Amino acid sequence: MADEPLKSYHTARIRKYCEDTHRPPFHHIEPGERYLRTALPPNSELGNEHWWTMNICKSCMTPEKGKSNV
Ligand SMILES: [Zn+2]
Known about the structure:
By secondary structure, this protein is mainly beta.
């Protein structure tokens, strides 16, 4: 099985929460907008046991977040 890409770009079909921050104010990714989905494999240095995914809206995307840091 091929490795999952850690960062991928999608177009939202339904409204999603932007998960760039877990602090208010929360905002959304509206249908039709591009967003970045990041995934962290299990057992990273953060100690997660399962895949962690995060949706980031276009306005929260920065060159910093968009580039690979592996
Ligand atoms: Zn956002």
